[in-house]
C-alpha cells in the first residue's frame, strides 16, 4: 500500500506508540483488502467502552483502560498509552441502559466498571451519544464526506440518505481511525463502486414506516450485499422521511448485507434511474407488488403463534422524536395491560427532549418506559417471563427470535401499542 | 455427507494444490470445515466454544476451533471482527480462513484473528475441499495443499 510522508511518519512511530500501532493495523487491514492507499477521515462512529464481564476481567488482569483500548480497539497485544483522539468520534449504542440496571438484569459491578470506561472514553474525546442513530443527535456527515462508521443501520443511512462514504468498519479499524484520521480507501469510498447493481421496480405505493420496513426486508433478502435502486415508473409518491428510511435501511442490512441503496428521485446520488445505475446495466430487475409485500410480512411473522403478548418493544433503530410523539398520542389516557410491558428505546439526547415535551410523562403514566443507550437485541434483556413480543421493527423481528428464542409479531406502531394495552396481538396486514 | 467412492478408498494420499492471494500471512494446518453458508460474527457465533449458533445455519452447533474454515465469506453485523477477535483471546479461533468474497468485515476479522487467510483462488475451494480433509495453508507463498482423507 502507498503511504504519504505523514502516514509513513506515523507508521515509523514519530507520533508515539499508540499511533504507530494504529497505523500498523491500518496497513495490515488495507493490504488484506487489497486497498492501494488510505483516505483521510474526520468522522468516526464506534463502540469503545466496556460493557462485558470479560472486558472488566481483562482490564483488571492486563493494566486497566489502556490495555482494553490497545487490545480491543487497536489489536495491539502490547499495552500502549492512548492519547486524545484526532478525529470527531461518536460513541454508538451499548449492551445495556446504565440508568436501568434492575430492568436490564445488571450487576452493580458491571455498571460501575462501565461508568469508569465511559469517563475514560469521554476524556479521550469520544462524544457519549450512545445510540445506533448518531445522525439523529448531531453527527450528520455531508455528501461525499469520508467516514469510518460501525453499526449496519448507521452505515447504510450514512451512505444512502446522506451520500457520505463509509464501509462497514469494525471496532479495531475505528480505533485506529480515531488516532490517525485514516481508513483504507476501498469499497464505498470509491465513486465507481457506488452505482446500483439491482433495480427494484415498485408496483405499489409504499407509504407507512411499516411498509418501508417490509420493502427493506424484501430487498435485503434478494440483493444480499449488492446495491439496489428503488424505482417507480409513476414516481415514488410521498417522499419517505427519516423514520421511514431509518427502518428501511435497518431491514435491508439485517435480511441482507446492504450498505448502500438508492431511492430514485429521493436519495442524493439518484436523481434519476440513469444516475443511480451510472451507465451500468442492472444485474437484475426485481418487482415489488402486493404479493411480495404479503410474502415478506408472513416471513417476518413466521415465529409467532401465541396471541398473548408479554412484551412490546419499540425503537429499533432508536426512535426519533417524531416516533415518540406518535407513540405518546397513541398511548395518552390508556394503560399498558398488567401482564405486558412496553419499552421504547431512543438516544439519551432525544429522551431529554421527550422529557421536556411531556411525552415521557404520558408514556410513564400509561405504564410504559422510555429507555436509552441500548435495545433488547444488544442487551439480550427482556421483561421476565417474555415468551411473545410485538415489534414495529423488521430488524428486531429478524434478530430477537434468533438471539432469545422468543416468538415475534411484526406490525405497525398502532398495532403494537394496542397489543401493549390489551395484552393480545390483533394485527393484520392492511 | 461425504460418500466414499472406490477411488477415494484406494488412494490414501491424493494431493490437490490451490493457489490464491494472501490476506493474512503465516503457515498453519488442520482439518477442513467446509460450509456454503456465509457466517455471521455478532449473533452468529459463540466465541467461547468457537461454534456457529445462528439458527438455520448448516454448521449450527459445530465448532471451528483449530479447523481450516472454508466458506463463501462474512455476513451480518459490524461486530464480526470483534467476535472473531474474541476467539483468538479464548483459544477457539480457526487455524486458517479460506474464503471467496472479500468484504471489510472479512478482511478486518481475519487480520485481528491473526490466523493465516487466503482468497482469490485459481479454483473454488468450496468445490475442491471437503470437511475432514487435511489442509496445509501457506499464505505467505499463496499455496493451499489439500490431502484428501481416505474414506473407508
From TrEMBL, chain A:
Keywords: Iron, Lyase. It holds the Pfam family AcnX. Residues 1-418 form the Phosphomevalonate dehydratase large subunit-like domain. GO terms for molecular function: lyase activity. SUPFAM superfamilies: Aconitase iron-sulfur domain. Signal peptide: none annotated. PANTHER family: DUF521 DOMAIN PROTEIN (AFU_ORTHOLOGUE AFUA_6G00490) (PTHR36577:SF3). This is DUF521 domain-containing protein. It comes from Hylemonella gracilis. The lineage of its organism: Bacteria, Pseudomonadati, Pseudomonadota, Betaproteobacteria, Burkholderiales.
UniProtKB/TrEMBL annotation, chain B:
Transmembrane segments: none annotated. Keywords: Lyase. InterPro entries: PMDh-S-like_dom. PANTHER family: DUF521 DOMAIN PROTEIN (AFU_ORTHOLOGUE AFUA_6G00490). The keyword Signal does not apply. This is DUF126 domain-containing protein. Residues 39-118 form the Phosphomevalonate dehydratase small subunit-like domain. SUPFAM superfamilies: LeuD/IlvD-like (SSF52016).
Amino acid at each position: 500500500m502507498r503511504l504519504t510522508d505523514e502516514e509513513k511518519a506515523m507508521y515509523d512511530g514519530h507520533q508515539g506508540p499508540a499511533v504507530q500501532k494504529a497505523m500498523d493495523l491500518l496497513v495490515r487491514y488495507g493490504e488484506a483488502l487489497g486497498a492501494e492507499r488510505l483516505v483521510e477521515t474526520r468522522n468516526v462512529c464506534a463502540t469503545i467502552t466496556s460493557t462485558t464481564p470479560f472486558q472488566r476481567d481483562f482490564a483488571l488482569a492486563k493494566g486497566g483502560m489502556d490495555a482494553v483500548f490497545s487490545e480491543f480497539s487497536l489489536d495491539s497485544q502490547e499495552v500502549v498509552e492512548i492519547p486524545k483522539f484526532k478525529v470527531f468520534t461518536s460513541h454508538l449504542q451499548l449492551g445495556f441502559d446504565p440508568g436501568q440496571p434492575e430492568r436490564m438484569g445488571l450487576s452493580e459491578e458491571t455498571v460501575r466498571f462501565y461508568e469508569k470506561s465511559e469517563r475514560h472514553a469521554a476524556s479521550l474525546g469520544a462524544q457519549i451519544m450512545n445510540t445506533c442513530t448518531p445522525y439523529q443527535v448531531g453527527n450528520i456527515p455531508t455528501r461525499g464526506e469520508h467516514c469510518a462508521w460501525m453499526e449496519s443501520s448507521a452505515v447504510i443511512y450514512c451512505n444512502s440518505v446522506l451520500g457520505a462514504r463509509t464501509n462497514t468498519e469494525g471496532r479495531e479499524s475505528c480505533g485506529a481511525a480515531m488516532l490517525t484520521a485514516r481508513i483504507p480507501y476501498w469499497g464505498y469510498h470509491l465513486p465507481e463502486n457506488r452505482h446500483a447493481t439491482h433495480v427494484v421496480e415498485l408496483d405499489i405505493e409504499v407509504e407507512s414506516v411499516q411498509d418501508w420496513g417490509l420493502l427493506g426486508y424484501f430487498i435485503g433478502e434478494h440483493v444480499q450485499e449488492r446495491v439496489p435502486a428503488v424505482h417507480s415508473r409513476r414516481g415514488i409518491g410521498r417522499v419517505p422521511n427519516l423514520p421511514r428510511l431509518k427502518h428501511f435501511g435497518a431491514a435491508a442490512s439485517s435480511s441482507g448485507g446492504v450498505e448502500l441503496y438508492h431511492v430514485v428521485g429521493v436519495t442524493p446520488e439518484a436523481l434519476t434511474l440513469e444516475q443511480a445505475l451510472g451507465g451500468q446495466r442492472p444485474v437484475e430487475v426485481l418487482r415489488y407488488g402486493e404479493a411480495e409485500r404479503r410474502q415478506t410480512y408472513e416471513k417476518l411473522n413466521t415465529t409467532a403463534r401465541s396471541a398473548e403478548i408479554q412484551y412490546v418493544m419499540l425503537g429499533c433503530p432508536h426512535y426519533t422524536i417524531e416516533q415518540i410523539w406518535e407513540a405518546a398520542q397513541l398511548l395518552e389516557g390508556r394503560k399498558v395491560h398488567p401482564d405486558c410491558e412496553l419499552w421504547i428505546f431512543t438516544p439519551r439526547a432525544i429522551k431529554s427532549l421527550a422529557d421536556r415535551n411531556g411525552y415521557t410523562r404520558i408514556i410513564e403514566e400509561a405504564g410504559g418506559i422510555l429507555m436509552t443507550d441500548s435495545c433488547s437485541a444488544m442487551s439480550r434483556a427482556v421483561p421476565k417471563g417474555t415468551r411473545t413480543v410485538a415489534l414495529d421493527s423488521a430488524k428486531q423481528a429478524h434478530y430477537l427470535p434468533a438471539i432469545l428464542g422468543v416468538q415475534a409479531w411484526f406490525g405497525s406502531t398502532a398495532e403494537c401499542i394496542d397489543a401493549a394495552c390489551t395484552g393480545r396481538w390483533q394485527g393484520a396486514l392492511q | 455427507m461425504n460418500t466414499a467412492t472406490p477411488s477415494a478408498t484406494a488412494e490414501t494420499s491424493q494431493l490437490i494444490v490451490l493457489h490464491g492471494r494472501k490476506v493474512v500471512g503465516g503457515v498453519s494446518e488442520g482439518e477442513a470445515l467446509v460450509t456454503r453458508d456465509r457466517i455471521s460474527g455478532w449473533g452468529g457465533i459463540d466465541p467461547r466454544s468457537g461454534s456457529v449458533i445462528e439458527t438455520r445455519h448448516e454448521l449450527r452447533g459445530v465448532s471451528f476451533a483449530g479447523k481450516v474454515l472454508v466458506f463463501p465469506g462474512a455476513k451480518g453485523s459490524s461486530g464480526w471482527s470483534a467476535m472473531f477477535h474474541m476467539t483468538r483471546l479464548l483459544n477457539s479461533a480457526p487455524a486458517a480462513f479460506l474464503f471467496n468474497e472479500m468484504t471489510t468485515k472479512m478482511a478486518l476479522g481475519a487480520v485481528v484473528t491473526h490466523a493465516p487467510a487466503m482468497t482469490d483462488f485459481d479454483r473454488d475451494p468450496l468445490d475442491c475441499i471437503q470437511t475432514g480433509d487435511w489442509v496445509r495453508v501457506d499464505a505467505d507463498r499463496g499455496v493451499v495443499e489439500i490431502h484428501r482423507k481416505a474414506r473407508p
